[in-house]
Amino acid sequence: MGNRGKASYGSRSTLACALAAALALYALPAIHDEARAASNDNNVEWNGLFHDQGPLYDNHVEPTAAQAVTLTLRTFKGDITSANIKYYDSADGAFHWVAMSWSANDATGNFDFWKGTIPASASKKYYRFQINDGTATAWLNAAGTTSAEPSSGDFFILPGFTTPAWMKNGVMYQIFPDRFYNGDTSNDVANGQYTYAGCATEKHAWRTSVVSNVSGCNSAVFFGGDLAGIDQKLGYIKNTVGADIIYLNPIFLSPTNHKYDTEDYMTVDPAFGSNTLLQTLSADIHSTSNGPKGYLVLDGVFNHTGDTHAWFDRYHWWTTNGAYESQSSPWYGYYTFQSWPGTYSAFFGIPSMPKLDYGASGSAVRNAIYGSSTSVVQTWLKAPYAIDGWRLDAAQYFDAGGNNGSDATNHQITAELRNAVKSVNPNAEILGEFWGNASPWTAGGDQWDSAMNYDGFMQPVSEWITGQDYNGNVASIPTSQFDSWLHGTRANYPTNVQQTMSNALGSHDVTRFGNRAGGDIWKTYLALFFQMTYVGTPTIYYGDEYGMQGGADPDNRRTFDWTVGTSTNSAVALTNKLITIRNTYPALRTGSFMTLLTDDTNKLYAFGRFDATNRIAVALNNDSVTHTVTVPVWQLSMTNGSTVTELISGTRYTVQNGQVSVAVNGHYGAILAQ
C-alpha cells in the first residue's frame, strides 16, 4: 500500500547525478598511469579520492556519545598538500575544522591515506572533506566530488543511533499469505462464506486465475494459503532459498484476501490460522533446528483501519457502537468526519479504509496503536509472539485531523512509535514504506530504521535490466545513469540505514520483475547477482527467486508454483548460491562500495565491496552476449601478481597491470574475491 506514483528523481540533484556519472566514467583502467603520475601540481586528481563510512574509512559507524570518530580519506600517492574535515555540529549550530594528517600508503603504492578525528559528543554531526593541492581545492562528501564547496549531501554522524545487525546481515523473504502454501485446508474460505461490500467470497483452485468471477471483487478471491503452510515450508525458505527474515503481508482479521483493511489488530485471521499458530510459527522461525535462526517482521497497517473494525463498524457487525454508527461512540474521535457518517477521511479516498486520527501526543489512538503496554505494536513484539519488527504500511500518512502526514505531527508520531518499539526490543526493526527519498524519516536517527527501497533499488534495477519501470512502463537507462542513480540515493541515508534498506525486485504493489523481464530468466539471474552483492537487505518477493510472472495488482499476487520452487530450478539454485556467498563475506553486507567501471556501449558494470579482510569485485553484463570485462582492481588495492577467485565457477585469476579480465555471459555476473 502507499504512494503508487513513479519514484521521483527529486531526491538527487542534477549536479550530484552529473558528478557521480563523471566519477564513474573516470574509473577506467587507463587512469592507472595517472596514479603513478600524481604530484603536487596544483591539481587534485579526483579519481584517486575515496571515502565512505565503511569499516576501513570510519572507525565507528554507529558511535556512542563517548566515542570519537576517526575518519580516513584516500588520495593518489603524493597528490595533495593538505586535507581537512569540515563538520557541522548540531549542538552549537556551527561548522568546525579538523586538520588531517598522512597516515599510510596502500599495498599497491598507488594511494595515500589521511586521517582525522571528530571529538566525541552526543550531538548529530554532518561532515565533508576539503582537499588541497597547492592552490587547487576539491570537496568530497556523500553526494560526490566538487570544485566548489557543497551545501548538501554530507556524511552522517548520529551518536546512539543503531540499526539491527540481523537486518544488515540477513536476507528477507516477503510472503502474501493467501498465495504461498495451503497447509491446513480446514480453515479455507469457502464460496459464498460471507459477503463484504457487495462481494461474496470465492474459493479458487491453486494456480488458477486471481481475477474474480464478479467485476470489482478481486479482493474476495481466496486460495487457502495460511500460517500452517508457511510453517511447513520454512525448510524451503531457510535452506533451499537461504533467507532468514520472513516478512508477512497483513495477517490480522479482515474480510479481504489482502487484509490491508484491518478488522481486529489483536486477532490472526481464522483463514490464516490463530494467535496460537502465530506463536508456533514465530518460534519455528527463530529456531535453529530447521536451518539458520530466523526473524519475523509483520505488516503494521496503522494509517487506517478497515470499515468493519469495531472502532468504525460501518456494517453493524459488532455489538458495540462504532464511530460510523454513533457520534457518542467511544471511538468517534479515532476518525475524522467531514459530514457524519458518510463523509470521512480515508486512505486515498477509499471508503473501506477510514483513516485514523492520531490527535495529540498521549491520545487514545496513539495509546491503542503503540503507546501503552497493551497496544498493538507492543503486544506482538512481546512474548509469546516475540516478532522482530514492523513494516509500517503507508507510514508517511500517519497524522491528526484527517491530514495526510509528511509534516511535524507525522514525524512526532513515528518518533514516539520508535521509542515504543525499542522499549520492548532494542533490536527490533522499523521498516517504513515510502516510494521516494525516505531521508525525512531515517536521516535523523529517531524514527524508522530503514525503508522499502523503491527509489534507490527496485526502480533503477528494473529500468537498467528490463527497460521498464516497476509499473511496466517503458523506461530504459544506460549503465552510467544507473550508477549515478545508485550513488545519489545512497547519499540520502546514513550508512547503517543504507545497510538495512529493503532491496526488492518486486512487491505486492507493482508488476512482477519476471513480467518486466519478458519472461527472460537470464535477466532474473543478473538481477539476483546485483541484489545479493549490493548495499542493503536483499528482499525476495515470494516467487521472484524463480522468475514468477504477473502484471499489475491483483496479478502480481499469483499462487506460488511448487513444481518449480525447488532446488533443481536454476534460478532458485543461483539464489541460494549467491546468498551463501553473501553470508560468507561480511564485505558484501557491511563493507565499502566503490564503482569500478561503467560501460554504456557494452552495457557493463563493475563495482567493489571491501573491508579489512576481503576485497571483492563484482562484474555485471547487461548485454545479451558474452563480454570480457576488464576490471580495474587496483582501485581496490589488489596488488599485481595476487590471485582472485571467481566465486561462482571457482576459476582463479592473477592480477596483471592492476587489472583482472573475466568473460561474463550475457545477463550474468562474476564475483571476484581476494
UniProtKB/TrEMBL annotation:
**The keyword Ubl conjugation belongs to this UniProt entry's keyword annotation:** no
Report TM segments.
none
Keywords of the record = Glycosidase, Hydrolase, Signal
CDD domains tied to this protein? AmyAc_CMD, E_set_CDase_PDE_N
> Which Gene3D superfamilies does this UniProt record tie to the protein?
Glycosidases (3.20.20.80), Golgi alpha-mannosidase II (2.60.40.1180), Immunoglobulins (2.60.40.10)
Q: Which Gene Ontology terms cover its molecular function?
A: hydrolase activity, hydrolyzing O-glycosyl compounds
Signal peptide start-end = 1-32
- Locate the Glycosyl hydrolase family 13 catalytic domain: which residues? 174-582
Entry's Gene Ontology BP terms: carbohydrate metabolic process
Which protein are we looking at?
Alpha-glycosidase
